[in-house]
Amino acid sequence: MLFYHPWMLWLALTMPAILALYILRPRRRQSVIPSTLLWRPAPAGLEASRPWQRLRSGPLLWLQLLAAALLVLAAAGPVWRAVIESRSTIVLLDASASMRAVEQGATRFDRAREEVVSLTAGLRGDATITVIAFDRQPRVVVRDSAQPREVSRALERITPSTCAADPGPALSLARSLARQYENPRLVLVSDGGLDLPGGDVDFISVGGGDANVSIAALHLRSTGSGQAAQVTVVNHGSRPASGTVALMKGHYPAGSKKWRLAPGETGHLLWTGLPRNVTVEARLKPDRPDMDLLELDNLAWAVPEGKTKRKILLVTGGNVFLERALGLMSQAEVFVADAARYQLLLHGAYPYDITVLDGVPGPLPPGAALLVDPPAGAPAPGLTVGPAIDRVRPAPAPGSPLLAYVSLDDVNVRDARVLTTGAGWSVDIVSGANTLFAHGELKDRRVAVWSVDLHRSDLPLRPAFPVLMQNTLDWLLPPALGVPGSIRPGDEVKIVPPPLARRMVVEDAGGAAQELAPPFPPSPWVPAEPGLYRLIAYRDDGSTVREIAVNGYIAGEADLRARDPRGSGDRAAPVEAEAGESRRALPLVQWLALSALLVVMVEWGVASRGR
Fold first, then answer.
1. Residue 83 φ then ψ, to 5°
2. Are strands 332-337 and 310-315 parallel, antiparallel or unpaired?
3. CB 327 within 8 A of CB 309
4. Residue 585: which H helix or E strand, with range?
5. Which parts of 374-520 are beta strand (E)?
6. What sign has the CA pseudo-torsion 500, 506, 511, 515?
7. What is the reported pLDDT for 65?
8. CA-CA 20 to 30 A from 335: which of 52, 121, 492, 522?
9. In angstroms, rounded to a whole number, what is the distance separating the alpha carbons of residues 173 and 182?
10. 70: nearest Cα among 600, 605, 593, 609
11. What average pLDDT does this structure show over 234-240?
12. Distance, C-alpha 30 to centroid of its chain
């Protein structure tokens, strides 16, 4: 039996209070007399009597104590775990980042392995065990085994990851496998802190302490002559902690700072005067090892924002609107050429990242392209430019990423060509059932199309125009190749290749390389460990390198408190059950409350009969 609310047992103090009432209250024998004349001296005797009386046993006393005891137990929320015979045990083994926490010389995952092997050793008859290890994704590591040695060897081949835990897919897989057995037992071996729906899963806790101090964030910002770094330190434990944080600027130390934090407190450390465009690394060290059980989140990296300008070639016969709008874009360097010059550039080393073709029939350039007012035809695969229509009423297409913060109210367009799009294309602006603006991701490039002659529209005079232009350029060639500023282990990163890239790889700090392309577009990259990585794009005329910081801090994994994942929120004790058996939780609150009501009714009846 266990209690969901054990702190409510303090209500048991009502039982000594009941005994005290019986001791302090004098009890006198009732008698029938013919007259009260002889009882006039009685008040004096009552005043002289002592308040303390000898406790006398009686049915009312025991009934009241029994009712109080039943109500106290009901308030504590008792649950009886009824034993159900089963032939199979399915174990959900937590292999997330928090299982790397070290307690008493062993990791939590080591203790979890021992628990699973112990469950296997206690199997009886033809009962078997299946083990599903999970972090973000589940994987079956043992299937229908009854040999402890076989299970131990299989578990020795896996280690906890650096990712967050998602028990949902693992639980779905376990319940799917459970359909093959009669009365299967589901067991979660974890340090808790998970959101586990359903009450049909037993929980074995392998977590003890909660001491953990983490580098939650490392931010860089530009200053007048360089940059500054801010390190955020969080104490997730229930005891005060202290230590130092050392900072590295590139390969050189930038000094260290001390910190002291109360339980649950967050602190910030600031370094100024750092060189511009230099990657920094922060390393946390506690004063004592017992202040920090998880070392995974003691390192953090930060990469300065790339300041390389995107080279944009505008091919036009003379469009002041486009030239001025492109010149106002952030991190853009604009070059202008006519159609003849453009044809010559295509036969050489094409150095431009984005090409804007204003009324030019083509061909498409290497890399990203924006086609403005293209002539009729098929300028790109899956795209056809049709005849022009008038009476245009531009309206945004739902969900278009290029129209974020763009308002088309009061935008007038005299005429525009109708676009017909196929697979790989998305619509941005429509006029009735006709498509006017669209964007598509082809095999080796990104292309956006505006079928409007800007001289025959007041769109360039509206505030929406520079916003639409910036959104379009950011989609054609995202800053930093689409790599987000914050990456955690296990995140899927989709990288946008730079123009003319022939090969793309990712290297870790040890030099091990993972090839992303060819073929293009590059395969998504999923970092497995925290660290500083290099994304290298090889071109015929050289290569470009971008550093990527992957930090191991995950708030849910950094909180090492052992919590019951079944929703009670209490600290969970290990579940002890016979192997080959399943225990079903049976709440006893309603039965105890009903029993207390019956006892109170009996006590009332006894008291009434004695009057």
1. -85, 130
2. parallel
3. no
4. strand 581-587
5. 377-380, 383-392, 395-396, 413-421, 425-431, 434-441, 446-450, 503-507, 513-517
6. negative
7. 81
8. 522
9. 16
10. 593
11. 95
12. 73
* Proportion of the chain above pLDDT 90, given as a percent: 48
For residue 200, report the phi and psi dihedrals to the nearest 5 degrees: -95, 15
The CB-side HSE value for 596 (13 A sphere, CA atoms) comes to: 16
Positive or negative, the CA dihedral 583, 188, 199, 168 is negative
Structure tokens, 2? 């266990």
Q: Give the residue, 255 or 26, on which the prediction is more confident.
A: 255
Within 8 A by CB and 6+ apart from 59, the residues are: 606
In contact, 298 and 215? CB cutoff 8 Å: yes
pLDDT in tens, 468-480: 999 999 888 887 7
Angle between helices 320-327 and 464-476 (to 10 degrees): 70
Q: Taking CA 113 as the corner, what is the angle to CA 109 and CA 114, rounded to the nearest 5 degrees?
A: 120
Q: What is the pLDDT of residue 196?
A: 72
DSSP conformation letters of 71-118: HHHHHT-EEEEEEEE-SEEEEEEE-SGGGG-EETTEEHHHHHHHHHHH
Contact 590, 192 (CB under 8 A): no
Query: Residues with Cβ < 8 Å from 185, sequence gap 6 or more?
Result: 86, 88, 89, 90, 202, 577, 580, 581, 582, 583
Give the residue carrying structure tokens 């870790």. Answer: 508
* 531-539/542-550 β-pairing: antiparallel
Q: Tell me the pLDDT of the chain averaged across its residues.
A: 85
What CA dihedral angle connects 492, 496, 502 and 505, to 10 degrees? -30
pLDDT > 70: percent of the chain = 87
Task: Indicate whether 5 pLDDT > 80.
Answer: no
Q: What is the C-alpha separation between 604 and 591, in angstroms, rounded?
A: 20
Q: What is the pTM of this model?
A: 0.66
CA distance 454 to 374: 12
Dihedral sign computed on CA atoms, order 494, 495, 497, 498: positive
Q: Which H or E element spans position 44?
A: helix 42-48
> Which residues in 381-491 belong to E strands, given as ranges?
383-392, 395-396, 413-421, 425-431, 434-441, 446-450
Coil/strand/helix, residue 27: coil
Sign of CA dihedral 599, 600, 603, 608: negative
Mean of the pLDDT values across residues 89-100?
Answer: 94
User: Residue 429: which residues within 8 A CB-CB, separation 6 or more?
Assistant: 394, 395, 396, 397, 400, 403, 408, 435, 436, 437
Residues 536, 522: contact at Cβ < 8 Å? no
Q: Is the dihedral of CA 323, 328, 330, 334 positive or negative?
A: positive
Residue 530: closest CA among 551, 557, 500: 551
Instruction: Return the CA Rg of the chain.
Output: 37
Whether the CB-CB separation of 495 and 525 falls below 8 Å is answered with yes
